[in-house]
Design goal:
about 60 residues; globular
């Protein structure tokens, strides 16, 4: 389970990370869950166009 998470960096998106972080808390820490949550979120608004959803999922699962 994801108990806490803080995402930070130079993403060049216009939307902050707080909503995504709150959606991830108390979710199972596995590829399927994180992938589904990112499918439902505004990935480009948070991370800009420099990262794909799949790249973000791989980074979070590492």
């Amino acid at each position: 389970m994801i108990k806490t998470i803080k995402i930070y960096g130079d993403f060049l998106g216009f939307k902050g990370t707080k909503i995504l972080e709150s959606q991830l808390v108390n979710q199972p820490y596995n590829y399927q869950t994180i992938n589904q949550l990112l499918n439902e979120s505004e990935v480009k608004a948070v991370f800009g166009s420099n990262f794909t959803k799949d790249e973000i999922v791989r980074i979070l699962i590492k």
